[in-house]
Each structure stands twice: as structure tokens, then as C-alpha cells.
Amino acid sequence: MKKIKNTIVYTLLTVLGLSTTLSCKKDFIDVNIDPIGEREVEARRLLQPALVNILYANMIRNWNFNNQLMQVSVEISDAEGKVFRYDVRRTWADYTWNAWYTNMTDLKDIYTIASKPESLNKSYQGISLITQTWVSSLLTDTYGDIPYSEANMGRTGNMQPVFDKQKDIYEDMFKKLEEANDLLKEGTAIDASDPVYKGDISKWRRFGNSLYLRLLLRASGKIEVASTVKAKIKEMIDTNPAEYPIIENNTQTAKILWNGTNSSSAVYSSPYMIGIRAVDFRNMPICDFFLGKLVSWEDPRVDPALGTGGVPRFGIDKGVDGYVGVPSGFLPGSGVIIQAHFNSDAENKFTLQTDPNTGIIMNSAEVSFILAEAAAKGWIIGSAESYYNKGMADAISYWMPTLYTGPTDANFIKYITDANLKWNPALPLDDASIGGNSKMEMIHIQKYYAMFLVDFQQWFEYRRTGHPILPKGPGLANGGVMPARLNYPLVTQSTNPTNYKNAVAAQGADDINTLVWWQKP
Asked: Do 238 and 381 form a contact (C-beta atoms < 8 A)?
């Protein structure tokens, strides 16, 4: 009973934005301690732990939720309640809801602190707006309508925040990113303790505008906003690019660089080392959809000769049958065994578990694929083929920076030619039929690999586009239908019953098959 009461109190606190010390991680011992008992904290001291906490949650759920749904990896289990079979239980909803809302309080406080005359700093204001939008987009794209305009206001007495409609949330996120772009253009200096860009304001501005493109594209299928968002994309890329700088290469990728050790007490140790046991990491089989294509393309990221000590860059070890994956959605009782799997630190081999580069927030390759889609649809002037090639080259170069000099490198051209990945202008724009090939499928299968390890972005983009086309295993639950959202945590029904009921009445049933706003036709 005590555990249940604690869970209810903790979940309520996350949405209200009240201070809580119920959740801290052992790698934040130094960062999370009250800074010398000060009554007023500096913006820089809130930024580090908030971003690391959020990325921790993102990476853990990428590992055990997104990757299972999107056929990156698959458990060997005949038990019920397995995500890779679309058997998503209500308990999956709580963890990200709690983590995102809890740390949103600090991100909002950064703006408040940076707006005071004695601590005025326009760059911290802009960074606060960008990071708030990043987390808000994760929340609304995962759950749909959410507490937004009244969220994190428990300290001012609002204990039952309303749920805002996703359309309204998107419109406000666009406003925040516009404001952030204006604030950051002034280049006000910030502390180099910034865990993402080490105080480089120009890169924060690029990230904010790239996030803007991600969200504009996600809303582009809605008739009521389509013309507006398409016009904005064109303005940012064709009409006034100097006013909207974006991420253009891997040096501008938004990420937190982990320390690369297996220490669980060091600041910035990878969540894969802290939150996942070595035995669980190495016993996670790779799905044949994810691995099979890389192997058939002879992709350098799974080439042992180009890796470390005979282990490819993606840290994958052979199974009993070699570099062979496990089919997702297999029937219980099929006798499936572990094949190719991720290495772990315990094996003394190269492993993603301690890799410094896994803390990706948004990368250069994703931006190129956003532009490739916009160009293929005729929204911007640029060449879809050029953006597509750049996206592939950047995706590989993120992990293997010395392999290619860029998308025109002769070795890169040879790779995509041999793998039959060259752009085909004769294909239709879209064909979502099983096995159907199209420009959208070409772009999104490569975008899928570019977003490897990036929170829920593969799942979000699949829900938006239906790409890449995933095989449907015979053991899938939920009628073989990809979950469209996570339900609201159960505690919201008891702590905020009126607004919860209003949200369900407006959005639809609180289950995994109710489409969010941008998914609806």
C-alpha cells in the first residue's frame, strides 16, 4: 500500500511541477546536490541535470520500447505483455510521463531566472524555450492532448491542469521556437558547462530551427495547417535561410557526449551502463528487419573489418548462424533462439553500452532527410537526391567520421551504387502497399537508420508516414496494428478526473489505438 501511495504522490508532483527528490540517479551525485544551500540557483546549474535526466529516460525507453516496436531489436520470450508483439500494457505510460514533466519544471525555471534583471540572459531564455519545446513535443507526440498551458504550475496553486489540444500545443511550440531564434541571434554568452554545445550559442540556434523543421513536417499532413507549415518550411530553406540557420553537419548534432567509461558514479556516464545490466544488454537480439538490410547492403556500420577488434561499429556480435537477426512478432512456442546481438561491456569487446556517442537528441542526417522529403514533395527548390545522399553520408559519418569526406566521396558513391541505394526519380512519391517501393520509402528507410537510438523518433515517423514498411509477424497482438500512442497514466484519472474526462471526450478513448491529431486524416 505504501508503494502505491508513493507512486500516486510522485506522479501528481511531476505534472504539477512541485519540487521532489524522489528520483535521482547515482551518476548525478555532484550535479543534483543543492548548490551550496543557495536560495536562488543559476540557470546553468539547472540545465545540466535536467537535460541529462531527460536523455536518460529517452535512451532507456528507446532501448526497451521504441526498438521493440520498430524492429530494431526483439526479445526472446513467449510471455504475454511484450512490446514487440504490440501487447503494450498501461504501465508503460508512467515512466516517460513522470521523467519529462519532472524535468520540465527546471527547464521552465531557467527562463524565469534568465528573465530577471539581475540574471538577465537572452541565450538562456532561448535555450529554455527550445528545450521546453523538445520535451513538450515528446509528450504530446507520445500521448496526444496533454497538460501544457497550465502544466508545472503546482507552486502557484493549480493542482488540476487542463489538457490542451495537440493542435494548440503545436501552434504554441512554433511560437516558442520563433522567439528562441530571435533571442539566440544576439549571441549572449553562457557558461561552457552547457552539456550539449559547451556554450556555443550558434549551434543552439541551429538546433532550435532544426527542431522547428521536424515539428513543421510532422504537422504538414493536417489540412487546416498544411499551407501554413509548408510555407514556413519554404521560408526557412529557400526564402530566408540566413535568418533560420539549421544543423548542417555532424559537428552541429545536438547530443550529450558520455564519458565513455563503465563507471556508474561518474557524471555523464551512459544510461546504457547505469540503467541496463551487462547481461541484459548482450542478450538483446537484433531484429532481422534492422540487421538484414544492413548486411545485404554491406553497410560499413556492420562490417567487422571496419570496426574495433573485429566488432563492427554498431557493436553487434554474431549469433550461432552469423550476422542473422531474429524475426519480430514471432508466434509463442516457435522455438526462436538468440542470434546476432549487441555486445556488452562485460564481454571486454567494443560495445555501444559505454559508447560516448549514443546520447543523440537530433542529428544532421535527420535534418537532411526532412529536406529530402520536402524537396521530393515540391515544397522547396533543392534537389531531393542531394539531400537524400547527404542524409545517408551523414548517418554513416556520425559513427565513422573518417570513412567518407561527404556525399560526393567516391567510396560513398560506390557503396550506394553496389547496395542499389541510388536515388530513383522514376519511382512514385508514395506507395504504402506491402513491399511497395517509392521515394518516401527510400527516404524513410534511411531516416530510420539515421534515427537509431534517438528516443521515439522512429515510432513517431512511422505513425506519420507508414514508412519504413515493416513486416507483420504472425504473433502480433492488437490485430497487428502499430500502437498509435501511449495511454495516460492511471493516476491522472484520480488526481485530475474532470480534465482527464474532458481530454478523453475530445481526443477519443484512452487506449493505444486512438490516433493523435497529426495522425488523423
From this structure: yes
Q: pLDDT at position 29, please?
A: 41
Q: How much is the mean pLDDT over the chain?
A: 91
Q: What value, to the nearest 5°, has the Cα angle with vertex 193 and ends 187 and 196?
A: 75
Residues 6+ apart with CB under 8 A from 277: none
pLDDT tens, 259-268?
877 766 667 8
pLDDT score recorded for residue 36? 37
Residue 183 phi/psi, 5° resolution? -65, -40
Give Cα 122 to chain centroid, integer Å. Answer: 27
Q: Which of 353, 230, 343, 214 is nearest to 286 (CA)?
A: 343
- C-alpha cell, 129: 524555450
Count of other CB atoms within 10 angstroms of residue 260 = 15
Asked if residue 334 has pLDDT above 70, the reply is yes
Compute how many other C-beta atoms are within 10 angstroms of the C-beta atom of residue 292: 16
Residue 301 or residue 349, greater confidence: 301
Cell numbers at 108, concatenated? 521552465
Give the C-alpha separation, 518 to 496, whole Å. Answer: 25
Enter the pTM of the model.
0.92
Grid cell digits, residue 166: 495537440
Q: What is the pLDDT of residue 515?
A: 98
Take residue 222 and report the three cell numbers written for it. Answer: 493536417
CA atoms of 189 and 173, how far apart (whole Å) = 24
Residue 354 reports pLDDT greater than 60: yes
- Decide: helix, strand or coil at residue 505: helix
pLDDT > 90 fraction of the chain, expressed in percent and rounded: 83
Which 3 state secondary structure label does DSSP give 254?
Answer: strand
Cβ atoms of 81 and 231 within 8 Å: the answer is: no
Give mean pLDDT, residues 19-29: 42
Q: Which value, to the nearest 10 degrees, does the dihedral of the CA atoms of residues 296, 300, 304, 308 take?
A: -160
Handedness of CA 393, 394, 396, 400 (dihedral sign): positive
